[in-house]
Hints:
The chain is mainly α. It has one helix at about 1-65. The protein has a domain at about 25-55.
Amino acid sequence: xxxxxxxxxxxxxxxxxxxxxxxxxxxxxxxxxxxxxxxxxxxxxxxxxxxxxxxxxxxxxxxxxxxxxxxxxx
Length: 74
């Protein structure tokens, strides 16, 4: 009887250890994916800033080119 209980407990412990190891591996993978996503987000933010600055410059140039009193084509 005692051996049976010990065997069941050992199986239960081994099963839980395997579950923990699997979850730890999944956690590491998710952390790596999160790190990649954060890095890409920073790259995207920088590119958005560059595009916004370029858009502002083009908008200012367009406003200046189409302002009253300006001659088109000059």
